[in-house]
Amino acid sequence: MRNIYFCQTNVKLMLSVNNLSVQFGKRVLFDEVNVTFSPGNCYGIIGANGAGKSTFLKILSGKQEANSGSVFLEPGKRMSVLEQNHNAYDSHTVLETVLRGNQPLFKIKQQIEDLYAKPDFSDADGERVGELQIEFEEMNGWNAESDAASLLSNLEIPEHLHHNSMADLDGKQKVRVLLAQSLFGSPDVLIMDEPTNDLDYDTIMWLEGFLANYDNTVIVVSHDRHFLDAVCTHISDIDYGKINHYSGNYTFWYESSQLAARQRAQQNKKAEEKKKELQEFIARFSANVAKSKQATSRKKMIDKLNIEEIRPSSRRYPGIIFEQERDAGDQILNIDDLSYSLEGQKLFDKVHFNMAKGDKVIVYSKDSRAISAFYEIINGKLKADSGKYEWGITTAQAYLPLDNSKFFSSELSLVDWLRQWAATEEEREEVYIRGFLGKMLFSGDEALKASNVLSGGEKVRCMLSKMMMSNANVLMLDEPTNHLDLESITAFNNALKNFKGTVLCSTHDHAFAQTVGTRILELTPNGIVDRYTTFDDYMSDSKIKELRAKMYV
Question: pTM above the 0.90 mark?
């Protein structure tokens, strides 16, 4: 059944979904979903892997059909969707690609240009041009190119590229241009699926500020919790084939659902005591949001937090617990004058670094290749151009590489796969192995799956089982949240905060970096920047910003 777009004129709606059902074979994804998206709010769509988040966005935008039901958009309102096909506009220039984000405006612009290009331009054509120019002016068309150029500059696409073909840009640049396209012309409804992918921290922070103060409706899917916290007024939870809105951002939804789950388990606690606890939680959360650095005009949502909306979630969170077999001594890792180049390009140079026991270091660089090379070198997988490193004799390291594919080339069952890293006879027992796999949500027959048919997220969870079983006192993690769902990311984040050992971690997950890191190590072609501070303070400190800028020249 095709989606039909219209709206009842007697009801104030921006976008609504009525009786939506989606089924693939015997699997029901959505069952009679009814939900409304109101003007001025930002909705973060969350749900377990496979719950249908991306499918729902495609149905809203008309790119996919539902089995039944309708999507209604208020007449005269414009919807914009972040393009997922990065090569869709390769035949157009960068500036034109952005302008095409506002199709009504772009069509008028084309009509005017086509009329002026006619060799037999008539008086009637002149009159039509005049009419179109009035419409164009009403749509702020004369400022369109400068507005588009400004968006591109904010997204770090320099002016000298604006008239280049999209085909000439690299993948990360294309992502930024398509993001500018979706934002161009202030659409009434903005739909974005994983908008922070392939963006650096500075660009993500700009986008957070833009959306947090955006006056129209935003519907977004993201695995970036910091992003969801910074922009969302509501969390829209896909669960049991339904979608429910909850006022607040992701952290409020997560903490409140956890509190509700604990209360449900407290059979002997009186109803009045539970209600008081919930009220105190809302008051405490509201106060923290009001004084946080993320407080923006969108944070008016704290006035709407409602005790009746707090419910336990059916989500399953993996049990990630890192324990040390023994404490490390004071000597952890000493690096002296380390440097590395790739294809003649210096990735990092003059790395002098002494890691102390208990440090939780966020390894950062503007070039992600530098980070992966650094990890590979200190794990003995790659030879440096110069310099040396030395691990303390009491350290035991566990490493999660960016590319884990070489670990999953065999057809071994997950039980036999994990058994490869068992150190004792006891650890080789199936009951013992299944215990670690079960914590990663591989229970029953799931633990007998072949290791070479796993999804990206399943592979990472297997690697975490391997790391947990090692009982290492030093953890090295290169982009550990890649492919993981929000539940796994949240559990992983909590595990690292509670870990008593030492951590080296690189991540594009802002919340991960901010809540885990106690020290920042930035690798540059001209040395390092090394500071004991939080990630947010590191990125916002003006003196550090000046120093960092010089290191990349």
Answer: no
